[in-house]
Amino acid sequence: MSTAPTYDLGVIGGGVVGSTLALFAQRGGLKTAIIDRGPLCREASGVNAGTLTLQMTRVALIPHAMRAHAMWASAREWLGHDVGVVVCDGLSLAFTEREAALLEERAGKRRAAGAPITIVSRDEALRVEPGISDKILMAGHCVVDGYANAYLTGQAFRAALIEAGVAVMENRPVKGLERTDKGFVAETAEGPVTFRRVVLAGGVWIEPMMAWLGVHLPIKVLVNQLTVTERIRPVMRTVVGIASGLLSLKQYPHGTVVIGGGWQGLGDRERGGVELVPERLVGNIRLACHAIPELAGARLARGWAGLEAETADALPAAGPIPGIPDAYVCGSIHSGYTSGPSIARSLADVILGREPDLPLFPIDRLLKAATP
Amino acid sequence: MTRQADLLVLGAGPAGTEAALAASEAGLDVVLIDEQADAGGQGWRAPLSGLTLPRKGPDAEAGDALRARLAASRVDRRFGRRVWSIGGAFRLDAAGPDGPEAYQAPRLIAATGAHERVVPFPGWTLPGVIGLAGATVLLKAQAVLPGRRVVVAGSGPLLFAVAAGIIAKGGEVAAIVDMDNRLAWAKRLPGLARRFDLLKEGLGWTWSILGARVPFLAGYGVRRATGETELSSVIVGPVDANGAPADGTERSFDCDALAVGHGLVPGGEVPKILRADHFYDRLRGGFIPELDPFGRTTIENLYACGDGTGIRGARPSAAAGRLAGLAAAYDAERLDERTFDALAALSLKALADYRPFADTVAAAMALRPAQVAAITPETIVCRCEDVTRAEIDAAVDAGAGDINQMKHFTRCGMGPCQGRMCGDVAAELVAQRRGVPRDEVGFWTQRVPLRPVPFDTMIGTFDYADIPIPPPAPL
């Protein structure tokens, strides 16, 4: 078998992270291929709630989330395609004293990390969002908030990648990855693809991908339930959550309301999101209707579940793979749709030999923890 | 809270009701659930409560007989329930008359019937245009005419049933526009004659239509419907045997209603949600579950029967339902092999007897590729989201290779009907644009709910403190 490198860089996994990375690497001068077992951005990157919020972002990710938010908001400029991004205010509500305490603590830490979040009174929150329940005690208010139409992500990235000259290989499952003296060979049913450097960007599939290289990196699989209403008249204009983070709620310009918040359904890495748990779906919808009372008159049109990846410490896996030159991992980012583009861009910088302007999250910490 | 049973049957049409009766007679504790107020499904639907129809057709009589047997049975009837969630091994959650309900059983029979198919044409979204099956419901259950002056158009025997129904209720049929020409029906006569009772019913419709001197255009299809804010006229023109527009003079009919339909699509949401294996069968109306002769799907203890497993019609559905009910009882060890074989033999024979007739009718209702190919670019295909044929073609050209990716690119199928109306035609358009067989473009990934369901009926009354909010994510 020929091991002559065809591509400077191979990205395995075509979600937001892999796609952004491939785009910036190719534009940086690397001949890049992106391979996915399905169409681009059809897993977590295409079926998530599309929320671009700092009030649900891990504190350590705030700088990336801030930059990624600006990237999403200006997608037309750097990506060349719209993903329906709306920038608006965001509110995180507290209904109980306990939630109020949680809100103040969390907002404070996020503010310290650079997120422009303030605590506002009930009346002020109602001025920002007249649709919310007057039962709230207070709210976190962030002007850097908003949402995208996640289902448009694949279409936008696909066009951008092709325009940039990236070799887009969709519907082509990689069965194995072999190291050679000149780089890497990805085995697929349609034949091998060779590259000098590789990035594993497979979200929840990072764990089996890493196993190709003999590295054990445990990745937990979350199964996030989401529901969407029929088109209804405007009942809200901001992104609304609650202090615990277990609600994400917004109404799209065409009228549908998407309800999320990470309530867990049933599923796994092999089969995806298999089943919604009715009690949890009802809990999530009750919470939404409690936050925006007028929602109770809407009809549920569709519910689904998407996978989200989580490392042992719930921080990203983003950096070189220790002991394997020219191999990198990028993914497992909490609220990855929000922060993914920025983290991927930083890793692209590293691969292009530049100093990243925001820190990465090397996996050495996780590998040490995994080996007793 | 949760009603436990031996068997849940979802859908109380002929298939589901017979399945429930057969399993109940064999000793299973059966719950039969339907959104409607009574059993009968679309074809054998009961009239609205308090409404007495002046003249009863064979369908109404068959429905009354079915309902009488059900009433005398031990089947637990749960009607007026909108089931929104289906879980594995097996749980149904429903919005009922008194709030949220849950049902659980180790066995589930899906008998959810069919949706109608309208192959889009310009103007099909105008008020005044309704489906043939929708018109049937108005006529049968509510004794309401679809309009004062109605054009009845499309393909298959529903055309004649609806036209005859309108005439019987004193309405005016402006024209019957049948995509099949007389030769096509003549060729079908041998198949139809295999069930003389049903053929007779069809001839009865024809007789009343002839008596009313309704213009009958055979080998014609609807070109477009026009009107400012509502339907005012329908323009029809000749079509060939494949449904493509053919040369010839267009004709226009003034009317205030158009009842139009091009066959039925199996409503197989349940086996799809539970991930049973499926295959594409054009004759039977679309993607249907792989079944053994008794209705067992590839998922253990999940059975399916009726038009949701392929379009056959009410009477074959009843036989298939009986088989599924018997199989569920046998698998639950409530029937010994000899009894099961003896009881099943009757229904297997009935099903075989109906087959030539059912195949003939199904063929008249199957999707015609050339008719789909002729949809004009600006015609709306997904009426929930206003997606045109040109947008679907553009999505395929932009790389949307399967129907789910096309949905992501266009919003086609994302509205309240979740692709039940447009899915079959949209998938055909994707397949044609790509030049690949239908199997390759797949079907929508099926999700809950089965029908749009109001939040307030799902969530009932609650206190904030009772919402089981999970612990917060790490900071």
Q: Could you please describe the fold and organization of this structure?
A:
The complex is a heterodimer of chains A (372) and B (475). With 372 residues, chain A is α/β, with parallel strands linked by helices. Chain A folds into two domains: 7-45 and 152-218 and 313-368, FAD/NAD(P)-binding domain; 89-144 and 220-310, D-Amino Acid Oxidase, subunit A, domain 2 (D-Amino Acid Oxidase, Chain A, domain 2, 2-Layer Sandwich). In chain A, 30% of the residues lie in helices and 29% in strands. Chain A contains eleven helices and 18 strands. In chain A, the strands form three sheets. In chain A, strands 1, 2, 6, 7, 8, 9, 17 and 18 form an eight-stranded mixed sheet that branches. In chain A, strands 4-5-3-11-12-13-10-16 form an eight-stranded mixed sheet, with helices on both faces. A two-stranded antiparallel sheet of chain A has the order 14-15. In chain A, helix 1 runs parallel beside helix 7, helix 1 (16-27) packs parallel to helix 10 (336-351) and helix 3 (62-73) packs across helix 10 (336-351). Chain A is globular. Chain B contains 15 helices and 24 strands. Chain B has 475 residues and is of the alpha/beta class. Chain B has helices spanning 14-25, 58-71, 132-142, 158-168, 182-193, 196-211, 269-273, 314-331, 337-365, 369-373, 389-397, 403-410, 423-434, 438-441, 455-459; strands at residues 2-4, 7-10, 30-33, 76-78, 82-87, 91-96, 99-104, 108-110, 114-116, 129-131, 149-155, 172-178, 216-218, 220-226, 233-238, 251-254, 257-262, 264-266, 278-281, 286-289, 302-304, 380-382, 387-388, 453-454. Chain B has a five-stranded parallel sheet, covered by helices on one side. Chain B is globular, with a radius of gyration of 23 Å. The chains are: A alpha/beta (372), B alpha/beta (475). The interface between A and B is large, with 60 and 47 residues.
